[in-house]
Design goal:
By secondary structure, the chain is mainly alpha-helical. The protein has one domain. It has two helices and no strands. The chain has helices at about 1-10, 15-55. The mean pLDDT is about 90.
């Protein structure tokens, strides 16, 4: 059982490329979630500042 996991994680000698591809894909998907949230927060802060200045 333990040997099958090691074989799986080793990926037939291509583990470095396979796992790095998974890591890059996960990072891109995370960025696709986080970036709009950060942008929305910036927009809200800018709008709040502009409304405060106009008063």
């Amino acid at each position: 059982m333990n040997d099958s996991w090691q074989q799986f994680l080793h990926m037939g000698g291509y583990a470095r490329y396979v796992w790095s591809a998974y890591g890059i894909a996960a990072a891109v998907m995370l960025a696709n979630v986080v970036a709009p949230i950060v942008a929305l927060a910036r927009i809200k802060r800018r709008i709040a500042r502009e409304e405060f200045v106009d008063d």
